[in-house]
Amino acid sequence: MNIILLGPPGAGKGTQARILEESFSMKQLSTGDMLRASKKSGTELGKKVAQVMEKGDLVTDDIVIGLIAEELELRTKIKGFIFDGFPRTLAQADALSDLLVQKGKTLSVVIEMKVDDEALIRRVVGRFNCKECGEVYHKDNNPPKQSNICDNCNSENSFFHRADDNEESFKNRLMAYYRDTSPLIGYYHAKGTLVSTDGLMDIETTHGNICQILGV
Ligand code: AP5
Ligand code: MG
Asked: Which residues, at least 6 apart from 147, have a Cβ–Cβ distance to it below 8 Å?
C-alpha cells in the first residue's frame, strides 16, 4: 500500500506518518526531513536549500524529485510508502506517477488532511522536535511525558524548534500551499484516489479515521 498525506503546513502529516510507520510495515518518506538532513551536511546545495526553507518557499522540483527517486531505488524491500509533504506541485505529482509505474507500484490513496488556518498557526508555533529521532511534539497538544526527555528515544535535552516555525515563514508556507499544492486536490480527485479527512480531530481520532480509510 502506497499513500500520500496531503495537507497544509501543520496539518499533522508527519505525526500521522510516524504512527502509521510504527503500526504497519510502511516507510515514511518526508521530503522536508530529507531536505533538513541535507541542510545539516553543510554542502553548497545544503546551504541553498536551507535559505529557501527558512523563508518558507518551495525547493525546486528537480531536487525533491531526485530525493524521492533515490529512496525508491534504494528501498526495494519496502512494501508500502507514506509520502509526507511530497508531491507539492503538479510536476512532482506527474513525476511520482512515472516513478511508481517504473517500479511496478501503484498509489493506493491520497488522504487530504483538512485543518483551518488558525489551528495550523497554533500547531506550528507550538511545535518542537527531537533532533535525535525526529519525534514531533506540541507544547499543549502533545507534550512529552517528561519535559526534557524524548518519549521515543529517551534522549535528554534534544528538543529544538524548526527554523521555519515562525509566523512570517508560516505565512509563506501557507501561501505556497494554496498556490502550488492545493491544485493537487483536484488532480487526485479526478484520478479517483482522493479521500478527505478532518485533521482538526485529536491525534488518536485522526489516526483511527485514517486507518478506516485504509481499511486496516
Ligand atoms: P515540511 O517539513 O514538509 O513542512 P510542512 O509541509 O510545512 O509541514 P509541517 O512539517 O510543518 O507539518 P505537518 O503536517 O508534518 O505537521 P506535524 O505532524 O509536524 O517542509 C518544510 C519545507 O521544506 C517547505 O516549506 C519547503 O521549503 C521544503 N519542502 C519540503 N518538501 C518539499 C517539496 N515536495 N517540494 C518543494 N519544497 C519542499 O504537526 C504539527 C504540530 O501539530 C505538531 O506540534 C504536532 O504535535 C501537532 N499536531 C499534530 N496533529 C495534531 C492533532 N490532530 N491535534 C492537535 N495537534 C496536532
Ligand atoms: Mg512534517
From this structure: none
CB atoms within 10 A of CB 71: 18
Q: Please give the pLDDT value at position 87.
A: 98
Cβ of 7 closer than 6 Å to ligand 1, yes or no, is yes
- Kindly tell me the number of DSSP H helices and DSSP E strands found in the chain: 9, 8
Residue 67 has what pLDDT? 96
What's the predicted TM-score (pTM) here?
0.97
Q: What are phi and psi of 5, to 5 degrees?
A: -100, 115
Predicted pLDDT at 25: 86
Distance linking the first and last C-alpha atoms of the chain:
11
pLDDT at 45 over 90: no
d(CA 212, CA 174): 28
Give, as one character, the DSSP assignment of residue 142.
Answer: B
Q: Cell digits for 151?
A: 518519549
- Give phi and psi for 70, each to the nearest 5: -65, -45
Residue 144's CB: how many other CB atoms inside 10 A? 15
Residue 138, beta-bridge partner list = 127, 142
Closest ligand 1 atom to Cα of 113: 14
Q: Which atom of ligand 1 is nearest to the CA of 206?
A: 53
